[in-house]
Write a structure and sequence with these properties.
Number of domains: 1
Strand content: 15-25%
Order of helices and strands: EHEEHEHEH
Number of helices: 4
Number of strands: 5
Radius of gyration: 13 Å
Helix content: 25-40%
CATH superfamily: DNA Methylphosphotriester Repair Domain
Structural class: alpha+beta
Strand order of the largest sheet: 1-4-2-3-5
Largest sheet: 5 strands, mixed
């Protein structure tokens, strides 16, 4: 898990974040306070505060850290998650 705030203070660090996304090393985003993960294109995820935003290299990583799927961008996975609660 990588925190978004780790990349804010420096232009080179911001470029590194974009490079990690482009290379596929970061594939999902999440909300640290709500423990929700979703796609990087999710409208809900784009609206969240940067202080709460985290990034994951895989869905397994997000799940292992206790995050649940987003009800908007990962609707089917969210419904499966909800049914198993």
């Amino acid at each position: 898990m990588i925190k978004h705030t780790d990349f804010e203070n420096n232009k080179k660090r911001k470029q590194l974040l974009h490079q990690l996304i482009k290379e596929g090393e970061i594939v999902l985003g999440g909300n640290m306070s709500l423990k929700i993960y979703g796609t990087l294109q999710c409208k809900s995820g784009k609206r969240m505060s940067r202080t709460n935003r985290v990034f994951f290299s895989s869905e397994k990583e997000a799940i292992d850290l206790g995050y649940r799927p987003c009800a908007h961008c990962l609707r089917k996975k969210y419904l499966v998650w909800k049914a198993t609660r």
